[in-house]
Design brief:
Elements (H helix, E strand, L loop, with lengths): L1 H4 L6 H24 L5 H29 L2 H28 L3 H6 L7
Family: Belongs to the CybS family.
Protein name: Succinate dehydrogenase [ubiquinone] cytochrome b small subunit
Subcellular location: Mitochondrion inner membrane
């Protein structure tokens, strides 16, 4: 549990690799999501890549912010807050992917003119 809570420091090399692979997944899924046609398997794949890569990437990065900017006494509670937000982010994206239009279509909808 400590490796998850302090994902920037306690996870060591594995945490750095997870962050690196998350970056690569985001870099590959973003153009795929942009250029994929609505409802295609490529778009759905990108949505599910996002559902895991976004929370992992932000969890590790926010833990680095906690380490760098909070005093030691506040780091423990803040790390639980970061973990909670990471879980909520994952669940929210999965809800959009499974019972809604998906993350890609939701974001693309921000730029579509209303009917």
């Amino acid at each position: 549990m400590q490796r998850i809570l302090a994902a920037d420091t306690a996870a060591g090399h594995a945490g750095l690799k997870a962050h690196e692979y998350g970056n690569i997944a985001l870099a590959g899924a973003t153009p795929a999501a942009i250029f994929a046609s609505k409802g295609s398997i490529l778009q759905k794949t990108a949505d599910f890549v996002f559902s895991l890569a976004i929370p992992v990437h932000s969890h590790i990065a926010m833990n680095a912010v906690v380490t760098d900017y909070l005093p030691k006494a506040a780091q423990g509670p803040a790390r639980f807050g970061v973990l909670g937000m990471s879980v909520v982010t994952y669940l929210g994206i999965m809800k959009m992917n499974l019972s809604g239009p998906g993350l890609t279509e939701t974001v693309k909808g921000l730029w579509r003119p209303q009917k």
